[in-house]
Design goal:
With about 160 residues, this protein is of the alpha/beta class. The protein has helices at about 15-25, 50-55, 95-110, and strands at about 5-10, 30, 45-50, 65-70, 70-75, 80-85, 90-95, 110-115, 120-125, 130-135, 140-150.
């Protein structure tokens, strides 16, 4: 059992961004991701605005797949709504590469990333949060001062 200042459940963009920021400040940080691979399964379409990539300084040459200047939206009634113009409205990104780049950034800053570890329970006792994790068929315990739930809408941490 290790003891971390902060444990983050979920290695998606939010969890990895926060982990990177904390680790840069020399705060012992661990990310526990329930899946065996960062970015899988894909949880969104991968459409973002340029502001997202401006906010996260990184090489985007391998991440951006396309730019969207507009769209034709066809309704069941055969009506068409056209959105568009001469500026980029959205970017299509490779979500797995994006997630992996953020996880690498967090690791480079000093955060530890554990794959195939699911947070299953958390309880506060004696000033610490006792976190129970499932790794394959093993139950593991960690202690932390702060637990962050970045593991989606069905998070056990949020309750």
């Amino acid at each position: 059992m290790n003891s971390y200042d902060v444990i983050i459940a979920g290695a998606g963009p939010a969890g990895c961004y926060v982990a990177s920021s904390l680790a840069k400040e020399k705060i012992r940080t661990a990310i526990y991701e329930e899946h065996p691979t960062i970015g899988e399964p894909t949880h969104c379409a991968g459409l973002v605005t340029q502001r997202v990539l401006d906010f996260l300084p990184m090489d985007t040459s391998e991440i951006i797949q396309n730019t969207i200047y507009g769209a034709h939206i066809h309704a069941p009634s055969d009506a068409t709504l056209t959105i568009g113009g001469d500026r980029v409205h959205a970017l299509v990104i490779d979500r797995q590469r994006f997630d992996m780049a953020l996880a690498k950034r967090a690791q480079t800053a000093g955060a530890e990333v554990f794959l195939d570890h699911k947070v299953t329970k958390a309880a506060q006792r004696h000033g610490l949060i006792h976190v129970t994790l499932q790794h394959h068929n093993q139950s593991l315990q960690e202690n932390t001062k702060l637990l962050i739930g970045a593991d989606g809408p069905h998070s056990i941490v949020r309750t």
